[in-house]
Amino acid sequence: MDDLFGLNGKVAVVTGASRGLGQAIALGYAKYGAKLVVSDVLDVSETVKKIEEIGGEAVGLMVDVSSRERVKGMFLAAEERFGGVDVLVNNAGILRSAPAESLWDEDWDKVLQVNLKSQFIAAQEVFPFLKKRGGGRIINIASIAGLLAFNQSIPYNSSKGGVVMLTKSLALEWAQHNILVNAICPGIFLTGMTNDMLGQESFRDMVKSKVPMARHAVPEELVGAAIYLASKAGSYTNGQALVVDGGWTCHL
Ligand SMILES: NC(=O)c1ccc[n+]([C@@H]2O[C@H](COP(=O)([O-])OP(=O)(O)OC[C@H]3O[C@@H](n4cnc5c(N)ncnc54)[C@H](O)[C@@H]3O)[C@@H](O)[C@H]2O)c1
Protein backbone atom coordinates (compact mmCIF):
# COMPACT_ATOMS: atom_id res chain seq x y z
CA MET A 1 0.00 0.00 0.00
CA ASP A 2 1.69 3.19 -1.10
CA ASP A 3 0.69 6.66 0.02
CA LEU A 4 -0.80 5.18 3.17
CA PHE A 5 -1.10 8.52 4.93
CA GLY A 6 -1.58 10.81 1.92
CA LEU A 7 -4.60 13.08 1.60
CA ASN A 8 -4.09 14.23 -1.98
CA GLY A 9 -7.39 15.00 -3.68
CA LYS A 10 -9.27 15.01 -0.36
CA VAL A 11 -11.34 17.91 0.93
CA ALA A 12 -11.43 18.32 4.70
CA VAL A 13 -13.58 20.57 6.88
CA VAL A 14 -12.21 21.42 10.33
CA THR A 15 -14.27 23.32 12.91
CA GLY A 16 -12.78 25.43 15.70
CA ALA A 17 -9.71 25.90 13.51
CA SER A 18 -8.62 29.44 14.40
CA ARG A 19 -6.04 28.12 16.87
CA GLY A 20 -5.02 25.16 19.01
CA LEU A 21 -5.71 21.59 17.98
CA GLY A 22 -8.02 22.57 15.11
CA GLN A 23 -5.39 24.80 13.52
CA ALA A 24 -2.69 22.14 13.93
CA ILE A 25 -4.89 19.44 12.35
CA ALA A 26 -5.86 21.72 9.44
CA LEU A 27 -2.20 22.54 8.77
CA GLY A 28 -1.21 18.88 9.02
CA TYR A 29 -3.94 17.90 6.54
CA ALA A 30 -2.78 20.63 4.14
CA LYS A 31 0.82 19.35 4.38
CA TYR A 32 -0.43 15.89 3.45
CA GLY A 33 -2.27 17.21 0.40
CA ALA A 34 -5.84 17.97 1.47
CA LYS A 35 -7.79 21.10 0.55
CA LEU A 36 -9.30 22.74 3.58
CA VAL A 37 -12.39 24.55 4.75
CA VAL A 38 -11.54 25.95 8.17
CA SER A 39 -14.15 27.55 10.39
CA ASP A 40 -14.52 29.10 13.82
CA VAL A 41 -16.49 31.72 15.76
CA LEU A 42 -13.17 33.57 15.85
CA ASP A 43 -11.23 34.91 12.88
CA VAL A 44 -9.62 32.05 10.95
CA SER A 45 -7.54 34.17 8.58
CA GLU A 46 -4.29 33.25 10.36
CA THR A 47 -4.96 29.55 9.75
CA VAL A 48 -5.78 30.21 6.08
CA LYS A 49 -2.56 32.23 5.75
CA LYS A 50 -0.47 29.47 7.33
CA ILE A 51 -1.98 26.90 4.96
CA GLU A 52 -1.31 29.10 1.95
CA GLU A 53 2.27 29.70 3.11
CA ILE A 54 2.97 25.98 2.80
CA GLY A 55 1.41 25.89 -0.66
CA GLY A 56 -2.02 24.60 0.39
CA GLU A 57 -5.51 25.83 -0.42
CA ALA A 58 -8.07 26.86 2.18
CA VAL A 59 -11.37 28.66 2.58
CA GLY A 60 -11.94 30.34 5.94
CA LEU A 61 -15.45 30.84 7.31
CA MET A 62 -16.99 32.32 10.45
CA VAL A 63 -19.27 29.53 11.66
CA ASP A 64 -20.84 28.98 15.05
CA VAL A 65 -21.24 25.21 15.18
CA SER A 66 -24.44 25.69 17.21
CA SER A 67 -26.20 26.89 14.06
CA ARG A 68 -27.40 24.10 11.77
CA GLU A 69 -27.84 26.58 8.95
CA ARG A 70 -24.27 27.91 9.22
CA VAL A 71 -22.89 24.38 9.50
CA LYS A 72 -24.73 23.32 6.35
CA GLY A 73 -23.39 26.45 4.64
CA MET A 74 -19.86 25.32 5.51
CA PHE A 75 -20.30 22.07 3.55
CA LEU A 76 -22.00 23.88 0.65
CA ALA A 77 -19.00 26.23 0.52
CA ALA A 78 -16.65 23.24 0.41
CA GLU A 79 -18.63 21.77 -2.46
CA GLU A 80 -18.75 25.05 -4.34
CA ARG A 81 -15.01 25.74 -3.98
CA PHE A 82 -13.49 22.26 -4.01
CA GLY A 83 -16.21 19.99 -5.46
CA GLY A 84 -17.24 18.10 -2.31
CA VAL A 85 -16.35 16.94 1.19
CA ASP A 86 -14.39 13.82 2.21
CA VAL A 87 -13.41 14.46 5.82
CA LEU A 88 -15.09 16.31 8.70
CA VAL A 89 -13.18 17.04 11.90
CA ASN A 90 -15.61 18.06 14.64
CA ASN A 91 -13.10 19.92 16.78
CA ALA A 92 -14.78 23.07 18.16
CA GLY A 93 -15.25 22.82 21.89
CA ILE A 94 -15.45 24.74 25.16
CA LEU A 95 -14.64 24.01 28.79
CA ARG A 96 -16.50 25.20 31.91
CA SER A 97 -15.05 24.15 35.25
CA ALA A 98 -16.91 24.67 38.54
CA PRO A 99 -18.15 22.57 41.46
CA ALA A 100 -21.34 20.64 40.67
CA GLU A 101 -23.47 22.60 43.13
CA SER A 102 -22.57 25.97 41.63
CA LEU A 103 -23.15 25.20 37.95
CA TRP A 104 -26.00 27.01 36.21
CA ASP A 105 -28.43 25.51 33.71
CA GLU A 106 -26.78 27.79 31.15
CA ASP A 107 -23.36 26.19 31.75
CA TRP A 108 -24.77 22.74 31.12
CA ASP A 109 -26.77 23.83 28.06
CA LYS A 110 -23.92 25.75 26.45
CA VAL A 111 -21.25 23.05 26.92
CA LEU A 112 -23.54 20.24 25.80
CA GLN A 113 -24.69 22.32 22.82
CA VAL A 114 -21.22 23.21 21.53
CA ASN A 115 -19.37 20.02 22.44
CA LEU A 116 -21.97 17.34 21.75
CA LYS A 117 -25.11 18.45 19.92
CA SER A 118 -23.09 20.44 17.39
CA GLN A 119 -21.05 17.36 16.48
CA PHE A 120 -24.30 15.47 15.83
CA ILE A 121 -25.71 18.34 13.77
CA ALA A 122 -22.52 18.55 11.69
CA ALA A 123 -22.53 14.79 11.15
CA GLN A 124 -26.14 14.89 9.96
CA GLU A 125 -25.45 17.80 7.64
CA VAL A 126 -22.25 16.35 6.16
CA PHE A 127 -23.88 12.95 5.57
CA PRO A 128 -25.36 13.71 2.09
CA PHE A 129 -22.07 15.29 1.00
CA LEU A 130 -20.02 12.26 2.07
CA LYS A 131 -22.53 9.92 0.43
CA LYS A 132 -22.16 11.79 -2.84
CA ARG A 133 -18.40 11.05 -2.73
CA GLY A 134 -19.04 7.36 -2.10
CA GLY A 135 -18.02 7.62 1.57
CA GLY A 136 -15.75 9.57 3.87
CA ARG A 137 -14.48 10.05 7.37
CA ILE A 138 -15.81 11.85 10.44
CA ILE A 139 -13.37 12.51 13.26
CA ASN A 140 -14.85 13.76 16.51
CA ILE A 141 -12.52 15.37 19.01
CA ALA A 142 -13.52 14.01 22.40
CA SER A 143 -11.14 13.96 25.40
CA ILE A 144 -9.81 11.60 28.03
CA ALA A 145 -12.52 13.39 30.05
CA GLY A 146 -14.95 11.33 27.98
CA LEU A 147 -13.48 8.17 29.51
CA LEU A 148 -12.56 9.26 33.05
CA ALA A 149 -13.87 12.29 34.93
CA PHE A 150 -11.89 15.48 35.46
CA ASN A 151 -12.70 17.05 38.82
CA GLN A 152 -15.30 19.86 38.80
CA SER A 153 -16.02 19.61 35.08
CA ILE A 154 -19.37 17.81 34.94
CA PRO A 155 -20.82 19.33 31.74
CA TYR A 156 -17.49 18.92 29.94
CA ASN A 157 -17.02 15.32 31.06
CA SER A 158 -20.63 14.50 30.16
CA SER A 159 -20.33 16.11 26.74
CA LYS A 160 -17.13 14.23 25.92
CA GLY A 161 -18.52 10.92 27.16
CA GLY A 162 -21.44 11.66 24.86
CA VAL A 163 -19.05 12.28 21.95
CA VAL A 164 -17.53 8.83 22.42
CA MET A 165 -20.97 7.22 22.30
CA LEU A 166 -22.12 9.45 19.41
CA THR A 167 -19.05 8.23 17.53
CA LYS A 168 -19.77 4.56 18.14
CA SER A 169 -23.47 4.99 17.25
CA LEU A 170 -22.74 6.76 13.95
CA ALA A 171 -20.00 4.24 13.12
CA LEU A 172 -22.55 1.47 13.47
CA GLU A 173 -25.13 3.11 11.22
CA TRP A 174 -22.97 4.60 8.49
CA ALA A 175 -20.35 1.93 7.79
CA GLN A 176 -22.79 0.64 5.14
CA HIS A 177 -22.25 3.97 3.35
CA ASN A 178 -18.46 3.67 3.62
CA ILE A 179 -18.45 6.49 6.16
CA LEU A 180 -16.06 5.70 9.01
CA VAL A 181 -16.57 7.58 12.26
CA ASN A 182 -13.92 7.75 14.98
CA ALA A 183 -13.07 9.91 17.97
CA ILE A 184 -9.76 11.15 19.31
CA CYS A 185 -9.36 11.50 23.07
CA PRO A 186 -6.52 13.94 23.74
CA GLY A 187 -4.88 14.24 27.13
CA ILE A 188 -3.46 17.63 28.07
CA PHE A 189 -2.27 19.74 25.13
CA LEU A 190 -1.04 23.32 25.40
CA THR A 191 -3.71 25.45 23.67
CA GLY A 192 -5.91 28.44 24.41
CA MET A 193 -8.12 26.09 26.41
CA THR A 194 -5.39 24.92 28.78
CA ASN A 195 -2.98 27.86 28.73
CA ASP A 196 -4.15 29.33 32.06
CA MET A 197 -4.19 25.96 33.79
CA LEU A 198 -0.72 25.05 32.54
CA GLY A 199 0.45 28.44 33.78
CA GLN A 200 -0.11 27.17 37.33
CA GLU A 201 2.72 25.20 38.86
CA SER A 202 0.34 22.95 40.79
CA PHE A 203 -1.43 21.92 37.57
CA ARG A 204 1.87 21.29 35.77
CA ASP A 205 3.01 19.16 38.72
CA MET A 206 -0.25 17.21 38.63
CA VAL A 207 0.23 16.51 34.89
CA LYS A 208 3.82 15.47 35.52
CA SER A 209 2.79 13.03 38.21
CA LYS A 210 -0.14 11.51 36.26
CA VAL A 211 1.38 11.23 32.79
CA PRO A 212 4.02 8.47 32.42
CA MET A 213 5.80 10.69 29.88
CA ALA A 214 5.87 13.34 32.62
CA ARG A 215 4.84 16.25 30.39
CA HIS A 216 1.92 17.78 28.53
CA ALA A 217 1.76 17.75 24.73
CA VAL A 218 1.87 20.41 22.01
CA PRO A 219 -0.87 20.52 19.33
CA GLU A 220 1.40 19.10 16.60
CA GLU A 221 1.50 15.85 18.57
CA LEU A 222 -2.18 15.22 17.81
CA VAL A 223 -1.79 15.62 14.06
CA GLY A 224 -0.54 12.09 13.33
CA ALA A 225 -3.64 10.53 14.87
CA ALA A 226 -5.90 12.85 12.86
CA ILE A 227 -4.07 12.02 9.60
CA TYR A 228 -4.24 8.30 10.32
CA LEU A 229 -8.00 8.43 10.80
CA ALA A 230 -8.54 10.50 7.63
CA SER A 231 -6.27 8.50 5.31
CA LYS A 232 -6.02 5.07 3.72
CA ALA A 233 -4.07 3.98 6.80
CA GLY A 234 -7.32 4.09 8.79
CA SER A 235 -9.41 2.13 6.26
CA TYR A 236 -10.50 -0.54 8.81
CA THR A 237 -10.67 1.63 11.91
CA ASN A 238 -14.25 2.46 12.80
CA GLY A 239 -16.09 3.50 15.96
CA GLN A 240 -12.92 3.87 18.00
CA ALA A 241 -11.91 6.40 20.63
CA LEU A 242 -8.19 6.81 20.00
CA VAL A 243 -6.45 7.99 23.16
CA VAL A 244 -3.46 10.32 22.73
CA ASP A 245 -2.48 11.15 26.28
CA GLY A 246 1.15 10.15 26.89
CA GLY A 247 -0.16 7.17 28.86
CA TRP A 248 -2.18 9.03 31.51
CA THR A 249 -5.18 6.70 31.32
CA CYS A 250 -3.02 3.56 31.68
CA HIS A 251 -3.15 3.75 35.44
CA LEU A 252 -5.16 4.84 38.48
N1 LIG B 1 -6.23 21.22 24.83
C1 LIG B 1 -6.47 20.08 25.45
O1 LIG B 1 -5.71 19.67 26.35
C2 LIG B 1 -7.65 19.24 25.07
C3 LIG B 1 -7.78 18.00 25.68
C4 LIG B 1 -8.84 17.19 25.35
C5 LIG B 1 -9.75 17.61 24.40
N2 LIG B 1 -9.62 18.83 23.82
C6 LIG B 1 -10.62 19.22 22.82
O2 LIG B 1 -9.97 19.62 21.64
C7 LIG B 1 -10.81 20.53 20.93
C8 LIG B 1 -9.98 21.75 20.57
O3 LIG B 1 -9.63 22.42 21.76
P1 LIG B 1 -8.30 23.28 21.95
O4 LIG B 1 -7.57 22.71 23.08
O5 LIG B 1 -7.63 23.48 20.65
O6 LIG B 1 -8.96 24.62 22.50
P2 LIG B 1 -9.02 26.10 21.91
O7 LIG B 1 -9.87 26.84 22.87
O8 LIG B 1 -7.66 26.58 21.63
O9 LIG B 1 -9.76 25.89 20.53
C9 LIG B 1 -11.12 25.65 20.44
C10 LIG B 1 -11.66 26.43 19.29
O10 LIG B 1 -13.07 26.18 19.18
C11 LIG B 1 -13.69 27.42 18.87
N3 LIG B 1 -15.10 27.41 19.25
C12 LIG B 1 -15.61 27.48 20.50
N4 LIG B 1 -16.94 27.52 20.44
C13 LIG B 1 -17.27 27.47 19.12
C14 LIG B 1 -18.50 27.48 18.43
N5 LIG B 1 -19.67 27.57 19.06
N6 LIG B 1 -18.47 27.42 17.08
C15 LIG B 1 -17.29 27.35 16.42
N7 LIG B 1 -16.10 27.35 17.02
C16 LIG B 1 -16.09 27.40 18.37
C17 LIG B 1 -12.88 28.45 19.64
O11 LIG B 1 -13.09 29.76 19.14
C18 LIG B 1 -11.48 27.94 19.46
O12 LIG B 1 -10.85 28.49 18.33
C19 LIG B 1 -11.99 20.82 21.85
O13 LIG B 1 -13.09 20.03 21.46
C20 LIG B 1 -11.48 20.40 23.21
O14 LIG B 1 -12.52 20.04 24.07
C21 LIG B 1 -8.59 19.66 24.14
Describe this structure in words.
- With 252 residues, the chain is α/β, with parallel strands linked by helices.
- It has one domain (11-238): Rossmann fold (3-Layer(aba) Sandwich).
- Helices cover 44% and strands 15% of the residues.
- A 7-stranded parallel beta sheet has the order 3-2-1-4-5-6-7, with helices on both faces.
- Strand 4, helix 4 and strand 5 (136-141) form a beta-alpha-beta unit.
- Helix 1 (20-31) packs across helix 8 (220-230) and helix 3 runs parallel beside helix 4 (105-132).
- It is globular.
- It starts with 10 loop residues before the first strand and ends in an 8-residue tail after the last strand.
- The model has no long low-confidence stretch (mean pLDDT 98).
Topology, element by element:
Elements lengths: L10 E4 L5 H12 L3 E6 L4 H9 L4 E5 L5 H15 L4 E4 L14 H28 L3 E6 L12 H21 L4 E8 L8 H4 L2 H10 L9 H11 L10 E4 L8
Helix pairs in contact: 1-8, 3-4, 4-5
This protein binds nicotinamide-adenine-dinucleotide.
Nicotinamide-adenine-dinucleotide binds next to helix 1.
- Kindly report the average pLDDT value: 98
Strand runs, count:
7
- The radius of gyration computed from the alpha-carbon positions, rounded to a whole number of angstroms, is 17 Å
Task: Please state the second-level CATH architecture.
Answer: 3-Layer(aba) Sandwich
Bound molecules: nicotinamide-adenine-dinucleotide
CATH superfamily: NAD(P)-binding Rossmann-like Domain
Structurally, the number of domains stands at 1
Number of helices: 8
Distance between the termini: 39 Å
Percentage of β-strand residues:
5-15%
Judged by helices, strands and strand pairing, the structural class is alpha/beta
Q: Tell me, briefly, the overall form.
A: globular
What is the CATH class name?
A: Alpha Beta
> What is the name of the CATH topology?
Rossmann fold
- Poorly predicted tracts of residues: none
Give the biggest beta sheet: 7 strands, parallel
